[in-house]
Amino acid sequence: MGDTDTRDLTRQVADYVVAARLDDIPADALHEARRALLNYMGCALGGSGHRAMAITWEALAPYAGPPTARVLGRAGQTDPLLAALLNGISSHVHDYDDTTPSNYIHPTSPVASALFSYASMNPVTGADLLLAYALGYEVVTRIGDATYPAHYQAGWHSTGSVGVFGAAVAIGKLLRLDERQMVWAIGLAATQSAGLREMFGSMAKSFHPGRAAQGGYTAALLAQRGFTAGEHALEGPRGFAAVESAAYDLRVISDGLGRQYHFHQNTYKPFPCGIVIHPTIDACIQLRRSHQIDARHVAAVRLRVAPLVRDLCDQRDISKGLQGKFSVYHAAAIGLARGKAGLAEFTDEAVNDPLVRQVRECVVAEADASIAEDSVHVEVRMRDGKSHSLALEHALGNLRRPLSDAQLEEKFRDQATMLPAAQVDALIAACWQLDRQADVRRLVDLAVPGPA
Amino acid sequence: MGDTDTRDLTRQVADYVVAARLDDIPADALHEARRALLNYMGCALGGSGHRAMAITWEALAPYAGPPTARVLGRAGQTDPLLAALLNGISSHVHDYDDTTPSNYIHPTSPVASALFSYASMNPVTGADLLLAYALGYEVVTRIGDATYPAHYQAGWHSTGSVGVFGAAVAIGKLLRLDERQMVWAIGLAATQSAGLREMFGSMAKSFHPGRAAQGGYTAALLAQRGFTAGEHALEGPRGFAAVESAAYDLRVISDGLGRQYHFHQNTYKPFPCGIVIHPTIDACIQLRRSHQIDARHVAAVRLRVAPLVRDLCDQRDISKGLQGKFSVYHAAAIGLARGKAGLAEFTDEAVNDPLVRQVRECVVAEADASIAEDSVHVEVRMRDGKSHSLALEHALGNLRRPLSDAQLEEKFRDQATMLPAAQVDALIAACWQLDRQADVRRLVDLAVPGPA
């Protein structure tokens, strides 16, 4: 493929986005894009009732524009820039959205949050939305890969700081910006790039993809009207890469642009909790199923885990759902006691469930440097003296064990509890057939609670 | 004064802002704060008609909330968050606002742009606004000093990236946030910290203080409602200083907080153009005045300037006002031909004025390493053979030669051309007496064109 010249990188990216057509993208890549959007939509529904959403809407509604846009999962309308922010918060607040392991970015939230807001008030075909999303995803992933790991390790939450580029080019594509305007949109995105990992553990983490969606959307609107920006936002000596990443390879952004796609780098979490405890949950669910384990009779659980798991998820004496998301003991307990780990398993109720607690209290976790981060060894000893064990190599949701389409649907249903079942079915079908939708507004209508 | 412990720095700053009272601030510092606000108000008026303002308003008005807030210098109303953005753009777009030479930040634009927007729609006393501004200025200056030069040299436009903290604490003070909320507001500001110097030379530069004002205002509103954020936003391992500055001294933020103020670090530009050509303009105005120079009879002008001046401002063959702002030849020409250098001297008209051009064409500028950046040597030779020269050590506007109150008023009047003279007089008087205003809305009403 050969190295490309990156002295005019921002313009190259703009050119690509302006010229790209849906037909250019291979069918398997588009299927992965649809999977990502289905997963996104479910997460936006699942997070739509979170307190961070209510706070944001209450705090900012007095300053919101005419209510022309819809917020996924919520009744009522607001202006599309606030809706973009809200969609970004809901879809990320449970940390349940997609992740590209090559750069740790959650790529869909910032891009799709802007797009579904835009498409809730403007006539957009499903094909146009899918294309705009695909371009946003591709731009985010390339910029993320080009600056990983330095950018992330420095402390940037790249879901926000890189996500903003994806939102800008995606909305810019729907606005049919010309090349010069697209360059400005990228510039206005770069100069809003923000989000610190110091916010992890607070609501502000979910604010990052929301603000990226809103900022990228704003960038495209301003550029459309002729608001100028520096034209070397990515590659310039004081541009994004130079300022926000101690090391980077700009060719990763330009090489193969329009010929190679990165959709298969994406992964979907089966469980709404810290990724490092996924192997434990997965193994315990499998053990319960294989051996019809009755959790009431569990005497002891011994885990051998990668040392990182103890570093990050060593809380056993917990009382809050949020703590459960970062407890390897809770992970084993819900796997054995409930055989599943959806949103309901990380509530305060679940953490305080007597059976879950009873199992949690008999779990020990041993750090073992010979266990990989994506693996676990679990041994369950029953009161009757029987013992069951499993050595899991790769957890479900890993690139090597991706969620099936059916598993993505199951995850979706688990989060779409505010919608009637028939509406959920229709919404899932509409997501799978996104590029055949004549108007995405019909799909978005399915994603909000009806007037009842 | 002794070193303070900075492990809880964000909370210390929050404590200070929450507890501070106007009486705590020395009278001379408050006078400087009033000077800064007068200068700010003039700049906001002067930039209010800029094309970047019209574009922003047009692009974002469809998404703006109820029109309850005023934009300085403009008829009509919009929502206060958009008004904060617009005030930030207008007050910085001519690069004519204040500068603290210790960190190159334009500190007032991000803070006051949010405050005057807020106070245009809420009852706020002048004393409360002055206090909130003073706290915002102090926070910006301390964070700027603590991270200068590394943060700026890395490519951050700290007027935006640091300015956002000032807007957040200033609005937070008016909202009477408690300490915990103020900590969150600082966190939400930190995680929006943005603005790249790669945008210099485009409209996006003025977007930085605007977005900082809007983002800081938003941070305070969200924190008020309980939107949580990381609580070590300034000092944490992945907080603002660690992520955005390769070197810093956090004690500069905390040492003497509430006892030492930094208002005398502020400077006001007499001329709306690159700071490095200020000595040339100043010297030429002085020569014209001292020797009653008639520019029509100038035969030759010889400048000896610091080498940096040639590096940055070497354009002679120019046709646009914006180019004039970075031309040492134009600087000499307007000083000699017009005896002043206000906004009118950096228009396309002025640059193409035959007399200005005639003088410009007989200027030569010699880089001389013995001339300091704030100095110049000018020699003017007349057609009759007479010669006049001046060696200027410090340009007007420098910390050693600050603009007098009367000169600030003159600068204000030069920019307030959209308002009737009597209204300008009343507005200037109201600014000087800010802390005696019962309701700042009356002052803001004076800063917009009347219904006439």
From TrEMBL, chains A, B:
Residues in MmgE/PrpD N-terminal domain copies: 11-247
GO molecular function: lyase activity
SUPFAM superfamilies: 2-methylcitrate dehydratase PrpD
Source taxon at top rank: Bacteria
MmgE/PrpD C-terminal domain segment(s): 271-433
Entry similarity comment: Belongs to the PrpD family.
PANTHER family, per the entry: 2-METHYLCITRATE DEHYDRATASE, 2-METHYLCITRATE DEHYDRATASE-RELATED
Protein name: 2-methylcitrate dehydratase
